[in-house]
Specification:
The complex is a heterodimer of chains A (192) and B (195). Chain A has 192 residues and is mainly α. Helices cover 53% and strands 7% of the residues of chain A. Chain A has two domains: 67 residues, Methane Monooxygenase Hydroxylase, Chain G, domain 1; 99 residues, Up-down Bundle (Methane Monooxygenase Hydroxylase, Chain G, domain 1), CATH 1.20.58. The longest helix of chain A has 23 residues. The radius of gyration of chain A is 22 Å and the shape is extended. Chain A starts with 6 loop residues before the first helix and ends with a helix. Chain B has 195 residues and is mostly helical. Among the domains of chain B are: 87 residues, Methane Monooxygenase Hydroxylase, Chain G, domain 1 (Up-down Bundle), CATH 1.20.58.1030; 47 residues, 3-Layer(aba) Sandwich (Ribosomal Protein L9, domain 1), CATH 3.40.5. Chain B has a three-stranded antiparallel β-sheet with strand order 4-1-5, covered by helices on one side. A two-stranded antiparallel ribbon of chain B has the order 2-3. Classes of the chains: A mainly alpha (192), B mainly alpha (195). At the A-B interface, helix 1, helix 2 and helix 9 of A face helix 1, helix 3 and helix 6 of B. Chain B: This is DNA replication complex GINS protein PSF1.
Chain lengths: 192, 195
């Protein structure tokens, strides 16, 4: 299994996907919030976390069939293909690309993969401008989690480059974790 | 729903990627309890599958949840281990007490062992050509000059230099020191280079 110890991958696989149960599940009624029964009947549609869906689908015979989350369906796909930059990824799907990679294999028509690629192409310019912008709050807002990481990385390497070009000199600095530990301690002190 | 506590734990770690949080043994205890409960229920139902065949599906769901909990706990510990490794490189071999108390006992043991391993490796470097080791935690950036001007950020006490001089590092005092002797203190945030 790839990324077994990666925290961000774990958070991605915590996103919910709609699933249809193919078998009866005794005592598992609580998975479906609208069910009054103790048992979960075959044929129920429930949203369960991706990790559960993946592992139940890989059983022999599979216990569930996985459906696409609504953001990867036709209606949203049309919006994304028309103009991906208008979509607020932070609200709609924080892990849009990562989750898309997982659910793409459950898409029979194979259109999810193309949408992901197309969306990134369209949003790339937005990502670039977010990384050089001084108004970080409004430009970073609509970005998804991984896009934010990219933009922050781009901004910090941009800063490093311009510092190096101006001076050609790198002063010794406090180690990153030491500095952050200090900052945090000071913030905690001020709270009390 | 399964494995929700463990997600809270990981989100906490994700929020502060640059600092280490106190070891959350209370939450870990709760998660282990959840896992024990799942395991016990699974044992009961697995024994009962002889009479009731449909129970095997339930057993599989719980088993997935158990595996998920295990994965998340391991990821939490692994993430902390990477941070503790960084602590050794940035704070040095002796941790300040306020950092020390963020680690669990086992983690502190690991830190000491890592520290010893690293030290003996650094001592062994270059022995075949007559050097008595090299400190890898020094000179992480290429040194530009032999002496640098530094400003003292905290009361650190006395510092004996290699030539025998003893200087007192007091807050807001300025010094002109050999780079080699003050860069560790700069990394620990006691001194700051003035450019």
């Amino acid at each position: 299994m790839s990324n077994y110890l990666s925290i961000s991958d774990i958070l991605v696989s915590n996103e919910k996907v709609p699933c249809k149960f193919l078998h009866d599940l005794p005592k598992m009624g609580f998975l479906d919030p609208s069910a009054a029964d103790d048992d979960l009947k075959a044929g129920t549609n429930v949203e369960i976390p991706l990790w559960l869906a993946e592992s139940l689908q890989s059983r022999r015979p599979p216990l569930v069939s996985v459906d696409l989350p609504k953001i990867y369906k036709d209606a949203y796909r049309e919006i994304l293909n028309a103009d991906a930059c208008t979509v607020d990824m932070h609200k709609l799907g924080q892990y849009f690309y990562e989750l898309g990679c997982y659910v793409a294999k459950h898409d029979i028509k194979g259109e999810v993969a193309a949408t992901l690629e197309n969306t990134f192409k369209q949003r790339f310019r937005m990502l670039l401008s977010a990384s050089v912008s001084t108004d970080t709050l409004s430009t970073m807002q609509p970005l998804s989690a991984s896009e934010r990481k990219r933009a922050a990385a781009a901004a910090s390497s941009e800063n490093a480059l311009s510092a190096w070009l101006q001076r050609g000199d790198c002063p010794l600095t406090t180690a990153n974790m030491v500095a952050n530990h200090r900052k945090r301690k000071r913030a905690e002190m001020e709270m009390f | 729903m399964f494995a929700e506590k463990v997600i809270e734990l990981l989100k906490e770690a994700e929020r502060n990627p640059d600092t280490i949080d106190p070891f959350n043994d209370e939450k870990i205890r709760q998660i282990l309890e959840e896992m024990h409960l799942l395991f016990k229920m699974n044992m009961n139902d697995a024994n009962a599958t002889n009479e009731n065949k449909s129970l095997w599906t339930t057993v599989q769901v719980r088993h997935s949840a158990l595996e998920r909990n295990k994965r998340c706990l391991l990821a939490y510990l692994y993430d902390r281990m990477k941070k503790i490794k960084t602590l050794r490189w940035e704070f040095g071999s002796v941790l300040p007490p306020d950092v020390r108390e963020l680690l669990s006992d086992e983690e502190y043991q690991w830190f000491s062992k890592y520290s010893t391993n690293l030290a003996s490796y650094m001592r062994s470097l270059g022995q075949d050509i007559g050097y008595s080791g090299i400190d890898l935690t020094e000179n992480l950036k290429p040194p530009k000059s032999l002496y640098i001007e530094v400003l003292c950020m905290a009361d650190h006490g006395k510092l004996e230099l290699e030539d025998g001089d003893v200087i007192t590092l007091k807050r807001n005092s300025r010094h002109f020191l050999p780079t080699a002797e003050c860069q560790t203190l700069i990394r620990q945030g006691v001194l700051k280079q003035i450019v």
